[in-house]
Amino acid sequence: PYPYYAELRRAAPVSVIDPGEIWAISRYDDVVSVLKNPAVFSSQGLRAATEQPWAGYNPLTDSLVLLDPPRHTAIRSLVNHAFTLRVLPRVEPLARKVARAFAERASRGLEVDICDDLATTLPAQVIGNLLGLDDACDKFRTWSETIVAISPGTPEALRPSIVASIAELGQYLEEVFEDRRRARRDDLASDLLDAEIDGRRLDQAELMSFMFVLFVAGFETTTHLLVNSLRILAERPELLARLREAPSVIPHFVEEALRFDPSVHVTLRVATRDTEIAGVPLPAGAVVAALLASANRDETRYEHADRFDVDRDRKPSVAFGHGIHFCLGAPLARAETRIAFEELVPRVGAIHVTQEPTWNCGLTVRGVTSCRMRFEPL
Ligand code: HEM
């Protein structure tokens, strides 16, 4: 899609994709100004997109991604607190253990579909452990791949599997909360049971929507970041050598991978009133597609934007969004990916993609679902 984004930025930075319905925003400054202004560009207005009659009750609809202030502010600060306390001390040892086990296998020479291996096992174990869902890790991939496909345009044939996944995950989460009500454990499910909002405990619908959104937002996005970063490294043997020499460059490598090929290409908003972007008028009700992946390649912000360069100026990208909905899991996703490469880079001699990867069909969460890779011993 990158040449297409470049063409949009050049010729039609605010362009109507679906006449009268969707406006695509492709330049960095415009994307940021949309995301900075939730009063005019609302997330709550998108609830209808997940409220599909065929899907039944969907806890995502009530989640913080689809809220505006002031409700968003209250919910976000609650989950910020619960999440941050847990994340930093917990992730490092667990992620390192999983990544090291993979790196040791890879160091002896290994060919695998990385999507069936490290790229799903690492985020699954980490998010499973944080949230308290460890015993269902093997189901995460099916649940998440199906649930993210929910939209007004979901083909009829895919609907039953979405409905089934929502029901299964919902039932599983109910059992988890039931269990933690009897006995708390050291996990986010237990923390949420004790958390308060406006001086009261969360009700069942709020508990469910928290867990749903953390799971859906936090799992597959990280898988794609891991795969994308590995593909970038496979194409650049000299970069692998550089990271081996200078492991302190790994965090910059991760940041540049997020800019260069982010897991989330687009996020949507709805105009709450007649407005304009870069001089182009938009009517109230217009759906605005903020093309994050395009903003990340905007030449006016990043010199040689199509070049992968770990040494470029450290300007933040919009891979994790911007403003009040800025990704809650950014420190977690960064830490997991950094740790994966800290373990892998010193142990493998070369990485090759041995089969053309298969892409999923999404733009919101975009990435490959299958990618065979060969790791050579050092
Ligand atoms: C929000 C990207 C990993 C939880 C977002 C947004 C983006 C994003 C672009 C903003 C959406 C918007 O403005 O509409 C990513 C990427 C990830 C990642 C690229 C990995 C590479 C995670 C993880 C978690 C997480 C690991 C948690 C476990 C969330 C939540 C929100 C969010 C809860 C909603 C925040 C809010 O509405 O206030 N993410 N994410 N994400 N992300 Fe992530």
From TrEMBL:
Which Pfam families does the record associate with it?
Answer: p450
The answer to whether keyword Nucleotide-binding applies is no
One MF term in GO for this entry?
heme binding
Please name the InterPro entries in this protein's record.
Cyt_P450, Cyt_P450_B, Cyt_P450_CS, Cyt_P450_sf
Which domain of life does this protein belong to?
Answer: Bacteria
Transmembrane feature ranges:
none
Tell me which UniProt keywords the record has, alphabetically: Heme, Iron, Metal-binding, Monooxygenase, Oxidoreductase
Q: Which Gene3D superfamilies match?
A: Cytochrome P450
Q: Does the keyword Chloroplast apply?
A: no
Similarity field: Belongs to the cytochrome P450 family.
PANTHER family listed in its UniProt record: P450, PUTATIVE (EUROFUNG)-RELATED, PULCHERRIMINIC ACID SYNTHASE
**What name appears for this protein in its UniProt entry?**
Cytochrome P450
